[in-house]
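Whiteboard transcription, Tuesday session. T.W. wrote the structure tokens on the left side:
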């Protein structure tokens, strides 16, 4: 079960996140200056996360794994936390895509 969360950050910008049932963040957005923009970003993630080409897998300079959800226009809409293994990253991708 994924929980959608819309919130205002310390920088006064709007963010959204997808969390698992324990409250662990699976994805987090960039900051938006307007609430409706953050809501549109969340809608975009919900649509795009089911499309194979919208998930961009990456590895950080420190060797950790993460992924981005990318809109059709190429803009990064949300980013995952980093994972210690490819398996951890792939498990989260599978859980949010279903």
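and on the right, the sequence the group agreed on:
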């Amino acid at each position: 079960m994924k929980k959608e969360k819309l919130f205002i950050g310390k920088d006064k910008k709007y963010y959204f996140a997808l969390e698992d049932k324990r409250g662990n963040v699976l994805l987090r957005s960039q900051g938006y200056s307007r609430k409706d923009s953050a809501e549109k970003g969340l809608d975009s993630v919900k649509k795009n996360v089911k499309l194979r080409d919208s998930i961009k897998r990456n590895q950080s300079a420190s060797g950790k794994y993460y992924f981005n959800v990318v809109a059709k226009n190429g803009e990064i809409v949300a980013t995952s936390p980093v994972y210690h293994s490819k398996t951890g990253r792939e498990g989260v991708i599978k859980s949010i895509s279903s």
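Someone added at the bottom: Strands lie at 3-8, 14-19, 25-29, 55-59, 65-70, 76-79.
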